[in-house]
Amino acid sequence: MAMNNILIIEDLAPVMQWLEQSVNLAYVDANITKALDLKSAMNEVKSQLFDLALVDIGLPDGCGLEVVDYLTQNKMPTMVVMTTIFDDDQHVFSALRKGARGYILKDQDKEHLAQMLIDIENGQLPISPAIANKLLNFFNPQQPKNNLTNREKEVLTLIAKGIKVPQVADLLEIKKSTCYGYVKDIYLKLDINSRAEATMEASKMGLIDRNI
């Protein structure tokens, strides 16, 4: 995908300079159009086609996501990449749902950003590592470590206090084999291998006070 006509939407002069320098490093012969606010950005996308748009979210007169909406709804061929300080779920997923193909945080040098832009032509989407991790965690959520049953919490509390498993079984009036089964399940769920780790996890969950 050739990047000949590029739009940069950014209201802060130092950041605009950083973006422009990065684009110049990546695409020496590209034609760069700059927009300092939402109004001028909308005028630009309505008057000409862009191969790439680097879009800030927080603009003086509105939200850059309105530009993304317009480009998507009108089926424009523009590759939209957000360039922003916002790394929260609401902004990230809203931008991607609206049609953004990349999401870059303003936390790297211009050489790194330039390489991310160059890689677009190799089919790589420009996404900051922190955002990539957020997406991976969203689509591959880890099982919570404290999803213990009430009985398992009772067993964990007692063994964390130093009580041996047979005594725990007697206190809870359950079979010793059943109690050992609970301990095995607890260790598996919490990904631990020792009584010391069990004590640590019980303390984190508020079941015991390690200072006592």
Give the distance, in angstroms, between the N- and C-terminal Cα atoms. 65 Å
What's the total number of strands? Answer: 7
Amount of beta strand: 5-15%
Number of domains: 2
Query: Sheet with the most strands?
Result: 5 strands, parallel
Mean pLDDT: 91
Class per helix and strand makeup = alpha/beta
- Fraction of residues in helix: 40-55%
Low-confidence stretches: none
CATH superfamily of the largest domain: Response regulator
What is the CATH C level class of the largest domain, in words? Answer: Alpha Beta
How would you summarize the topology of this molecule?
Layout: E1 5-9, H1 13-26, E2 31-35, H2 38-47, E3 52-55, E4 58-59, E5 62-63, H3 65-73, E6 79-84, H4 89-98, E7 102-105, H5 110-118, H6 129-139, H7 150-160, H8 165-172, H9 176-190, H10 195-204
Parallel strand pairs: 1-2, 1-3, 3-6, 6-7
Antiparallel strand pairs: 4-5
Helix pairs in contact: 1-5, 2-3, 7-8, 7-9, 7-10, 8-9
Output the keywords.
212 residues, alpha/beta, Rossmann fold, Arc Repressor Mutant, subunit A, 2 domains, 5-stranded parallel β-sheet, two-stranded antiparallel sheet, 10 helices, elongated
Task: Give a short summary of the structure.
By secondary structure, this protein is an alpha/beta fold. The protein has helices at residues 13-26, 38-47, 65-73, 89-98, 110-118, 129-139, 150-160, 165-172, 176-190, 195-204, and strands at residues 5-9, 31-35, 52-55, 58-59, 62-63, 79-84, 102-105. 50% of the residues lie in helices and 13% in strands.
